[in-house]
Amino acid sequence: MVDLAPELSEASRLRSTDGTGAKGLLRLATAGSVDDGKSTLVGRLLHDTKNVLADQWAAVERVSRDRGFTGTDLALLTDGLRAEREQGITIDVAYRYFSTGTRNFILADCPGHVQYTRNTVTGASTADVLIVLVDVRTGVVDQTRRHLAVAALLRVPHVLVVVNKIDLVDHDEQRFSQVTEQVRSFTAGLGLADVRTIPVSALNGDNVVEASANTPWYTGPSLLELLGTIDPVRADKDERLRFPVQYVLRPQSAAVDPAHVEYRGFAGRIAAGTVRVGDEVVVLPSGKRTTITGIDTADGELEQAGSGQSVSLRLAHDIDIARGDTIVAAEGAPGVVREADAMICWLAEVPLRARQRVLVKHGSRTVPAIVAELHGRLDLGSLEAEAVDAFDLNDIGRVSLRLAQPLPLEDYGRSRAGGAFVLVDPQSGGTLAAGMVRFNGNGSGPGVPKLAIEWEI
Amino acid sequence: MSSVELGGPPRTPDTNAHPVELGGRPPRTPDTNAHPAQDQLDLLESEAIHIIREMVGELDRPVALFSGGKDSVVLLHLASKAFWPARVPFPVLHVDTGHNFPEVLEFRDRTVERLGIRLVVASVQDYLDDGRLSERADGTRNPLQTMPLLDAIADGKFDAVFGGARRDEEKARAKERIVSLRDEFGAWDPRNQRPELWNLYNPRHRPGEHVRVFPLSNWTELDIWRYIERENIELPSLYYAHTREVFHRDGMWLSVGPYSQPRDSDVVEQRLVRYRTVGDMSCTGAVESDAADVAAVIAEVAATTSTERGATRADDRISEAAMEDRKKEGYF
């Protein structure tokens, strides 16, 4: 469902409950092209929410003065590297932390020009909200399409398109509507769950923290109001237990207490679902079945634990389990596969060709693999696949993988935890690609390769 | 490199100190709530434990930087929770500038003994004594830590070096990955960092390279203090308000001691102060404060108008890029 209407009944409803207490941590990522004013927007957000401390502000004022700027350059607040300040550009993802009293935010500020997809993919992979900047004068450009495609591919739950520099077109409603229409027509086929546009002047602060009198025709919430109403998505509620084993805890003589010399537990962080004492589980890839007898933390035993919690699980049977195995709910357990079809974002300087040998890291397991086939690269203009011999840096496309050992892969559209993986260079150890498993069916096996990009996300 | 199938029995700890309890917090009562709510500290704790376990699972020789400063104390506390009921399966490394606060060194030694962890000390003084390093004109030793640190990493063949650095501390650190590659010269290349996707951390590297790992990346100074309160974590006493003989220089209160002598023009006075960061005595300033316990410190930090490094670190005031330059050379 695409909702670009400025009237936000849900947002209004949620806004009325503001101030009732902490609303949880929200993870944001920003994306924009060069000169869209992204650093200025982030600086404005930090400044207007009073998250800039006196010494940071003094440094920004000093540098602005030294450069002969007439005002204080808000972008200097976020540009952390010497080259960034000197060249007035942003080079690498920077992380900011700010708070509004009711909510804390982690913001991944992703630069637009160099290695842009790489940075956007990095920021978007953990984001609840992707903020895409568009210059109202130029409207939707190639990079905007790329950012929106990445958001759809990575299933970012909320996308806010900030139509910036509205002051430079005399706060003209017509121009804003045109850009909104461009966004609407491009995202119609993407399957994004929630896309909204907001008219903003980051430079002057219009609609950033407070609704602006300069845009009386816009009756929706400001950017910050909107961010205050969005619920962070921690996990899909109906997901079942997925627990990649990170480490086997067998203290023996290293026990902190002699009572735990014989302890044997499986340490990890719950990637999806919940676990209760007494639950039936299956260990993958072996397929052995057992029961949860204990959920431990250093603070004591738990009766149950949920997605995101780091715990240690005890099991009824003495099964051979090692790091890299996955403990899953017996009901709806995924199959393990040696072949998979996936969308990837290629993030390396060297091109990817068919038959390349890589490592696949999924959960806590890393296995050798071969990229058997390239099924086409996504053309961002048409959103269709085009046949290519190689993927270059920042290309998005579909591949088939052959795995040396079986993995419990799931469709990324159904489970982010079960479908996300990275490709790693076996020689250098570098990260080559972000991957999202695609199964056409119900998760029982690899899908039939098709050339068209069909994202039923 | 082939696929990693580590696991099995944890490493044997390096000492056989007697078993001790973690922290002072009573165990939580079992949670029978249908959907146990996780607050921000729970999330940050689980994230940090996941990162620590992941690195120990993937790599051969981890080590944690431990100075006795609040962030490294929290890091070590998280490591002990990550491997409970086993002890922390890796040693800790302290780069001793030779100008450390005595109460912090005492705290350091007591903590590693309590947890049964081996302590490796890299001494800046040794490097000064035999001429491999020379004192700087300004007398600060923080920038001198890099060479002993890199040598200790190479000597110990450490491939994962945990640090307590946080992204909210400083603008170069805001650009840092959670798992960050260092070449064989220890150098950080901020313009060519690996993408870090989902929570699939990739610590693989060539021989001679290593990774720095920052499990507290997403914590703020306030999170650290709230966690210290919640977990009842002991810190060196100088984090709390105490009366100290100090003199004012460059907008900071410097302690009168063997390594930070007032000049004739400096006025020495007794002040109620505390330290927001703990480092080399010659360049770490105190702040005026009457916050004598954790709750008072939390209130103070929540209302502060300056960053902790801006308020207390002479070495970060040298230039806009002081931290960036040190990090590129291999500093933590």
Low-confidence runs of chain B: 1-36
- For the secondary structure, the number of strands of chain B is 10
Given helix and strand content, the structural type of chain B is alpha/beta
CATH architecture identity of the largest domain in chain A = 3-Layer(aba) Sandwich
Q: Could you give the topology of this structure?
A:
The complex is a heterodimer of chains A (457) and B (332).
Chain A: H1 9-15, E1 25-31, H2 38-48, H3 54-66, H4 82-87, E2 94-99, E3 104-109, H5 116-124, E4 129-135, H6 142-153, E5 158-164, H7 173-187, E6 195-199, H8 223-229, E7 242-244, E8 247-249, E9 265-269, E10 274-276, E11 280-284, E12 288-297, E13 300-302, E14 304-306, E15 310-315, E16 326-329, E17 337-346, E18 352-353, E19 356-362, E20 365-379, E21 384-386, E22 390-391, E23 396-407, H9 416-419, E24 420-424, E25 431-438
Parallel strand pairs in A: 1-3, 1-4, 4-5, 5-6
Antiparallel strand pairs in A: 2-3, 7-16, 8-9, 9-15, 10-14, 11-12, 11-16, 12-13, 12-15, 17-23, 17-25, 18-22, 19-20, 19-24, 20-21, 20-23, 24-25
Helix pairs in contact in A: 1-8, 5-6
Chain B: H1 40-58, E1 62-65, H2 70-83, E2 92-96, H3 102-115, E3 119-123, H4 124-129, H5 146-155, E4 160-162, E5 179-182, E6 210-213, H6 221-231, E7 242-249, E8 252-255, E9 268-275, E10 286-288, H7 294-302, H8 308-312, H9 322-328
